[in-house]
Structure prediction request, 652 residues.
Amino acid sequence: MQALTRHISPGWLLVAPFFLVVVAFYLGPLANILWLSVTDPEPGLGNYEKLVENDALARILWTTFRTCAITTVFSVGIGYCLAYAMVHAHQKNQNVMLTLLLISFWISVLVRTFAWLMLLGHNGLVNNGMEAIGLIDRPVRFMRNELGVLIGMVHYMVPYAVLPLMANMQTLDPRVMAASRNLGASGVQTFRRIYLPLTIPGIVASSLLVFILSLGFYVTPAILGGGKVLMVAEYISVQLLVTLQWGTAAMLGTLMLIGVLALLWIMSRFMQLSAVFGGGATR
Amino acid sequence: MQDKQFMKETLLQSAHAYKSGKMDRRTFLALCGASGVAMTAVMAGDAKAAADHIVMWNWGGVSEECHGKAIGEPFEEKTGMGMQFDTSGPLEGKIREMVDSGNVTADVCDADLFNAVSLGPTGHLEPIDYDIVSKERTLPQYALEHGVSIILYGYAFVYDTEMYGDNPPQSWADFYDTENFPGTRALYKWAKGSLESALMADAVAGDELYPLDMERALTKVKSIKDDSIYWGSGSEVHSMCISGEASMAIIWQNRGKNIEEDTEGRYKLVNNQAMAMPGAYIVPKGNPAGREAVMKFIATAQEVPSQLMILDCLGMTPSNPEAFSEIPEEQQPYAITSEQNIDKIVYNDPVWWGENGSEAVNAFLEAIS
Prediction:
């Protein structure tokens, strides 16, 4: 026992139950997915070969990547403006703005998706209104295409982009900006050369968050895409529930997992991830 | 969720134990009380109600009420066994998962006949006992080893009369003719019906559809891609029509009736060349109520009164030929096997779909996305 405690800190014993729970209920099933992807329907790398052989799969992955990337750019762009406004607003206004943001954050994705259909759909408020004042003579197609999916996803993702950015902006020392102005820099110069570089950790954090969450989008593309925007999450669910090609589903799931991990790894080469996720002070 | 499941099983076990005399009444009642599940069963003084019932796995909604009235009640009268529901939707993947996990909680699935073809040979289903279930009370090609068709539903289409008032589309050829019939089409996302309609539009005869010429069908579907949107659920296509978004839509014929009613006749159903799909009852391997009980249940569903009640309540057409002639007047235009329609329809081949469905669905999804 003493020999054992010499090599292993007793502190690990306290952690052990949680560690075992994680292994049993998280890593175990995950390993099962990996296993399934190389064994179902037959052992080998057949499922992964499909990626090369089947150009439709590559197209679905590309659609997913493209949609998520565009969503990220717009969500973070809009989120940056919102966060900037909120941080610099009067405390009372800031509270109101935060409340409004959180309300939309808490509304279910399904409700928000259908709300867009009512607003921008074929017979929606916007189309009817524009027709009534004679701007257009037939409804514009906002929904049931890629544009619809992007609108729905960006709207859903904006709060996720704002929160990390706000946390980051609040930690900035306003005296730095004041010093810059004092030394003769214009407002634009100060923003470009001082403020923006200082908020890069926030931008990276919210981009990562938005991109990774977007990868799993299922409901919004299915409803607003009119069946024509097929993203990986929906394809995986079809393979699991309808066509019973669990191997293909597991392969795609594994691919997504590796993709996310790789993304985090690449980011970690350029900056300390702990700084991105709010641990900046421990550097 | 897990807790509820656990309680349900505990109760089931103990009710069996009580019935066979291994558990005394007091303990059983205490258990019922603790679980809070079967209070009604306990108050009726009938332990059997907790243990001996058929669990139907369907899609919920109004079908819960309809199945209960049409099959559950006559079945209870006959056998004394009740009926309960799992309304989470018996998708093939879920049935497979349930049987593989060894925790089978459903007795009969309100599914498609092609499910019987794909899940049967892999050992996930109980074979149908044709000593109890009648082969004559369904269409001959729809009595398969692991599943029997109870109702038929149809893939037909609706069109917007305001759009095509004077020259309405009559056939699938018109449906795919965007030149003479401009406007947005809504097709079924999971390929069924969509593929067959494309082939019929491409002048393939209704009785020569199978095996489906996938390439030909997909080429036809792709030819209207810019003018089409795709739906995945009945409510989705319903709203596409109500909002005027789709000028024509492939649709289940019972849903088509609802749309006609909800749009006050603006949309009209066309049953010409409609495709009859066999909706079937299949039984997961090792179902809790036992094979004999569930076969009696299925036999009840085949009887003419049950069949007509399902038609009245859900709009699903009888598959029992004895019931065809008894379809009431007002249902004639909508029921796919009514005298008005039966000569105009084509029949789905569940064997082809069971064997090739996975590839077909994927190919279709890949073609439209």
